[in-house]
């Protein structure tokens, strides 16, 4: 039989130690966030529904987004054992410069809508951790303001070629003058995708105080307080910002964009040129023939054409077709550090991360973005060690395979 006794106070004392109190509410909120999914749950609670859905949602039935995520769920690593992985190197050369992690922050529109700190916070985290940051044409902070907020960051600029080419030319020149070294031309937006969550939520920029948003705002007073007491929310590169998201997108995007425009941009931009939104091998070859230094295999986070190709599945054939002529980057559906490593093992130079850091931004501003990077970096290190690989550069196709559907 088990003999029981009363524990001595000295034995209870180590078990009853309260966790240290964290005064900062943002830090407290992030303490239990162990994954990007955790940050997503916090973001959903912290922001109005229309704002969260803008970040979280995709086009039509959202099949493109879910298929992209499902592809990463099908990744199977082939680890080797008895390797010395006591030290790991997570750095990666991307477009001629070393990044401390094998990914960059992707361009995202309306970033100050997610949190009033917006692009400045994200760029400063990129500077801190040593990865590139990409400012969007649809950003809510100017080219020059981002440069001032993160003067030592590696800064890229994402461009939509406007119907008015003079405006695009001015943006390109401003980016060059402000020290941005890479230009990403997005080519998968002849028109805006059917983002049904935004339509159903009646999302406008700036958000309108309808009865529905007023009621939702009562549940998120901190967000509305920050919106109303900081600089007005606007598109920093657009003269007119009234109306729905679809209205603004279709005023800016140009359905007449062709390869001639890629040729023109190559002549106008002296830095690295990346074409973002490539969705088949033939187009990747065409844009590299026109002078692109890299392509981003992307379906725009599933936010344009639903039922679009899955970017991860395009990596191997695109790398084989391009060889050493250009670098291949990939985005869409990346929620874990292992996702990034899978893409690199299949041949990608690196990845672009979008939603993952926006969930962090919505959850706790700059601290949340830091947390997102910490989570992803930890997953990258741990996955490398468990695969039996000492550095990102050692990854090869034999380290990974995609399990069949079903």
UniProtKB/TrEMBL annotation:
Broad class of enzyme this protein falls into? oxidoreductase
- Keywords, comma-separated and alphabetical: Flavoprotein, FMN, Oxidoreductase
Q: Which CDD domains match?
A: alpha_hydroxyacid_oxid_FMN
What PANTHER family has UniProt attached to this entry?
A: 2-HYDROXYACID OXIDASE 1, S -2-HYDROXY-ACID OXIDASE-RELATED
Extract the InterPro entries matched here.
Answer: Aldolase_TIM, Alpha-hydoxy_acid_DH_FMN, FMN-dep_DH, FMN_HAD, FMN_hydac_DH_AS
UniProt name for this protein? Alpha-hydroxy acid oxidase
Record EC number: 1.-.-.-
The domain of life for this entry's organism is Bacteria
Gene Ontology molecular-function annotations? oxidoreductase activity
Q: Which family does it belong to?
A: Belongs to the FMN-dependent alpha-hydroxy acid dehydrogenase family.
Keyword Transport recorded: no
| Domain FMN hydroxy acid dehydrogenase residue range list | 28-405
Q: Which cofactor does it need?
A: FMN
